[in-house]
Amino acid sequence: RVSMRSARILRQLAVTVCKRHHHHHHPHHRYHHQRSAGIIGAPFSKGQPRGGVERGPDLIRAAGLLNKLREQGCTVKDYGNMAFEEVVDDEPVGRVKCARAVGSANKRLSDAVQAVKREGHTTVMLGGDHSLAIGSIHGHSAAVGELSVVWVDAHADINTPLTSSTGNIHGQPMSYLLHELQSKIPVLPNFSWIKPCVSAKDLVYIGLRDVDPGEHYILKLLGVKVFSMSEVDHLGVPRVMEETCDYLSAKVKKPIHLSYDIDAIDPSVTPATGTPVVGGLTYREGVYITEHICQTGLLSAVDMVEVNPLRGRTEDDIQSTVSTAVDLLLGCFGRLREGNHSSDYRLPEP
Ligand SMILES: *[C@@H]1O[C@H](CO)[C@@H](O)[C@H](O)[C@H]1NC(C)=O
Ligand SMILES: *[C@@H]1O[C@H](CO)[C@@H](O)[C@H](O)[C@H]1NC(C)=O
Ligand SMILES: [Mn+2]
């Protein structure tokens, strides 16, 4: 088994070789897999009760995401915002709220993600609430096969419709996607298209600090790899990331789906979100996670969810939340905090 460190060195070598090629042969193929972003806006909020989160995609774009990605050498194609079906009479099914709207929206999103993956991009799904991970991960897997999922969040979002105390589907997406939980999922309207596509052993959580009893039971039952904030405190984020990537690539290196909930970051930095929880990741820890995942060369899809301007008390709250979301996405596409210069840079002579 190749350790992540040697994998990284191999990758750096590959990059050097590619750079040489770049001048002579293949100008368009350098870093293609991680340097081409297909942006999908998903202004959807019915997975939870608070309005405002549907404004996430436009705010993140307005903060300059596309230009900043291009400035760092990334090809960007913006597929715009999706339109979702209006569902009337979306009565609760048991405790589950807005099942029809959530099911229908995620079906569309899954189809969109499949199409964008087939065009060769790393998909960037701008939410919207975290129920959208159902369609995003489903579509990603339908296009590329088995995945590793890295879920960065204050919450595990793994309630089943029957363990959930709120009935909000943004707290349940992983339960619909995991093979191991299928016998525990009741029939819901507009959910019949979902085929479970993730194995518990291919899932890693980072940043958990608000886990419901049923969720905690499920995580232990399935033996899911979890780096809660206690592990982050104990090990530090660099070690957490080494262990995450070693764990996920122990056998085969699968494409990585990074599902990033902005509430993973501490609310002192990202307050404009629906369910903030104290004691989160620092800005630097949050960015480090994206840098490390980018360096694996395996990042194939990213979700950035739960940015909600109506939950910020001040303009600064909103600005800090949105610009952090942008920086996390830049980290996913190779931004270097150490700085950067072009290979033909020359110092000016006096
Ligand atoms: C580094 O700088 C060069 C030249 O400005 C640019 O083309 C390249 O994309 C940059 N790389 C990153 C990772 O920012
Ligand atoms: C979702 O449910 C609504 C209402 O029952 C129905 O009109 C619609 O066609 C369904 N959509 C999908 C994609 O299943
Ligand atoms: Mn979440």
What can you see in these coordinates?
This protein is of the alpha/beta class and 350 residues long. It has a single domain, classed as Arginase, Chain A (3-Layer(aba) Sandwich), CATH 3.40.800. It has eleven helices and eight strands. The protein has helices at 4-24, 56-62, 65-71, 99-118, 133-144, 173-177, 213-222, 229-235, 237-248, 283-295, 315-332; strands at 36-42, 75-81, 122-127, 148-152, 203-208, 225-228, 256-261, 299-305. It has an eight-stranded parallel sheet with strand order 2-1-3-8-7-4-5-6, sandwiched between helices. Helix 6 links the parallel strand 4 (148-152) and strand 5. The termini are far apart. The model is unreliable at 1-34 (pLDDT under 50). One 2-acetamido-2-deoxy-beta-D-glucopyranose (NAG) binds at residues 87, 100, 104, 107, 189-190. It catalyses: L-arginine + H2O = urea + L-ornithine. Pathway: Nitrogen metabolism; urea cycle; L-ornithine and urea from L-arginine: step 1/1. One of its GO terms (molecular function) is arginase activity.
List SSEs in N-to-C order: HEHHEHEHEHEHEHHEHEH
Give the class-level CATH name. Answer: Alpha Beta
- Strand-residue proportion: 5-15%
**Secondary structure: helix percent:** 25-40%
Mean pLDDT: 92
How many structural domains does the protein architecture include?
1
Over the alpha carbons, how many angstroms does the gyration radius reach?
Answer: 20 Å
User: What compounds sit in this structure?
Assistant: 2-acetamido-2-deoxy-beta-D-glucopyranose, manganese (II) ion
Distance between the termini: 53 Å
What is the name of the CATH topology? Arginase, Chain A
